[in-house]
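Chain A, query sequence.
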Amino acid sequence: MVHIGNSWDYILGDEFHKDYYLQLREFLKREYANYHVYPDMYDIFNAFRYTPFEDVKAVIIGQDPYHEPGQAHGLCFSVKKGVALPPSLQNIYKELHDDIGCPIPKNGDLTDWARQGVLLLNTSLTVREGQANSHSGKGWEILTDAAIRKLNDADHPIAFILWGSNARAKAQFVTNPLHRTFQAPHPSPLSAYRGFFGCRHFSKVNEFLISNNIQPINWEISD
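Chain A, predicted structure.
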């Protein structure tokens, strides 16, 4: 079955034995055998692998992985080094620059954030090539909602960064007064100018962490 290699194995262990996940697993076997599916099957759980439960300081919630070759590697909004920056990530970097002055990175690999405690979680963890949302409704959302509920139960403050209607729908699971949600429109070119630009979430999240005596995130991406 699934082996993440850290505390998430215990936190989510029961989910991997439930009927919905067993059905999802059979669906994924067929998909990977018959189609190009992203990310690589060994990268599906990278968000959990790079950011153990107890290390989570912030959560950024995406929708589903990028669906073109070479882009997705298991972290929402992130692409591998050497891959052209998708438009939403370009806008994230623009807001990052305008908010805290970080230089615009040349690469889109957000692994540095993940290793600092930013869980980069898509609501659906796989997608068929060229078909956005093709694996939605297959069971992934049940698993990722379970992860959000577990994070809500954490006894340390967490910032939940919710961009776009899909992510903002997850605010219903964040009921613990320790935590805080930061909500804005999606960074895609279709909606970024409706309130994503100027949201200043990067500095606000760090202010929240500092106010709780938690080491802030170094948002600068090294090239």
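The CA atoms of residues 37 and 128 lie 4 Å apart. The radius of gyration is 17 Å.
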